[in-house]
Design goal:
Elements (H helix, E strand, L loop, with lengths): L14 H15 L7 H26 L1 H44 L8 H29 L3 H25 L7 H7 L1 H19 L6 H18 L19 H7 L6 H9 L5 H5 L2 E4 L2 E4 L9 H21 L7 H45 L1
Antiparallel strand pairs: 1-2
Helix pairs in contact: 1-2, 3-4, 3-12, 3-13, 4-5, 4-6, 4-12, 5-9, 5-10, 5-12, 7-8, 12-13
């Protein structure tokens, strides 16, 4: 890192060494015992580092040339990525926009005669659809700038959103579980109380003022009310789904919504969220015969997060506009959903075609490199 800034006036690669040498020589001239040089160096190094660090930081901040060069490299990469993946990413954009518009249309329908359970279902599914649209947009941004692993991490949450939306939509037509959406919405207090209590424990360390006691008391009151209403199991992470699924966890909810086949991708995405050895093991990519550490942008691997994200977004959209619609789907909603399915197929083909083109181009490059090495 220091090498990038060695031409600056204040900092160069030998600054630390020269500063330590000057300090030692000055003390030797003053009669320092040579055997104490080691002690002097161990004392001088922290002082020199403390003096150097602000100068190095200032040099880094002022070095606009390195910043401009890094940005140029970044922009060139983005242009190359768009050249290869632009068609597929544009189709993703269109599909995402259609889903968002359909969700907005459903949310703004006039429904004066809805029963309370239907209102809760509409509110829950609308909220989940908003979440899905936002996350799918984040995935698109990450893919457009060469971060498929980051996109995969967001797909994890998007899959959870799809599972919950499907569960709530399915339960809406089940007389035994028509209140599931209400339970889901009421479960917000469980998370609010947990987060508030954690903040109260750590606020001093964070340098923050504690939450007002009146607010905490109100959370406790609401928390006690929902436990009295739904039972002690309601405090669990998926306690709102306990009656619908006795094993109240995401894996069982996946099974109930026929989404358990996505579990391998979900686990892959989880390794990009949690910092474990599995995630570290995925930090390597093969590039022209070399195994490299993936610490930046790449122009491969966009297919899986793109398809996973679109599938989840479409599932949430279908739950809101069709399967969970309080008054049933109308013809326009059915037509839009069918068109979305067609667009998904076209988008999938575009992503696959882009990857095939990249693979073929890389094969040609590797063959030329091999022929060149043989001729030499």
């Amino acid at each position: 890192m220091l090498g990038k800034f060695k031409r600056t006036r204040h900092v160069d690669g030998d600054f630390l060494t020269r500063a330590i040498e000057d300090a030692v020589l000055d003390q030797l001239r003053k009669g320092l015992d040579p055997e104490r040089v080691g002690d002097l160096i161990s004392t001088a190094v922290p002082d020199v580092i403390n003096e150097l660090a602000p100068q190095l930081a200032a040099a880094m901040i002022k070095d606009k040339r390195t910043l401009r060069a890094s940005k140029r490299i970044d922009r060139r990469f983005d242009r190359r990525l768009q050249k290869k993946w632009g068609k597929a990413l544009d189709l993703y954009w269109v599909l995402h926009s259609v889903c968002a518009e359909l969700g907005e249309r459903e949310a703004h329908k006039k429904r004066e005669s809805l029963a309370p359970a239907q209102e809760h279902t509409l509110e829950a599914l609308t909220g989940l659809h908003v979440t899905a649209c936002r996350i799918a947009g984040e995935v698109l941004t990450l893919l457009s700038h060469g971060h498929p692993r980051g996109a995969m991490a967001r797909c994890r949450t998007l899959h959870e959103t799809a599972v919950i939306a499907c569960v709530i939509a399915d339960a809406a037509a089940d007389p035994d579980h028509h209140d599931l959406a209400e339970r889901f919405l009421d479960h917000e207090i469980v998370g609010l109380r947990r987060d508030a209590l954690q903040f109260q424990r750590d606020h001093a360390t964070l340098g923050e003022e504690p939450l007002e006691q009146a607010y905490v008391d109100e959370l406790e009151k609401r928390y006690a009310e929902v436990l009295a209403k739904y039972g002690q199991s309601f405090k669990r992470d998926y306690g709102w789904a306990k009656r619908f699924s006795p094993d109240d966890n995401l894996r069982k909810l996946e099974e109930k919504t026929s989404l358990s086949h996505v579990r391998p991708y979900y686990q892959w995405a989880s390794s990009e969220v949690h910092c474990g050895a599995r995630g570290i093991g995925q930090n390597f990519i093969e590039y022209r015969g070399l195994v490299l550490r993936d610490a930046g942008k790449v122009n491969v691997g966009l297919i899986d997060p793109a398809i996973m994200a679109l599938n989840s977004l479409i599932q949430v959209t279908f739950s809101l506009a069709v399967s969970g619609a309080p008054e049933g789907p109308d013809i326009e909603a059915l037509l839009c959903v069918r068109a979305i399915e067609e667009m998904r197929s076209a988008c999938s083909r575009a992503f696959e075609d882009a990857q095939v083109e990249i693979d073929r181009a890389e094969e040609r490059i590797v063959k030329r490199m091999q022929r060149k090495n043989v001729s030499h």
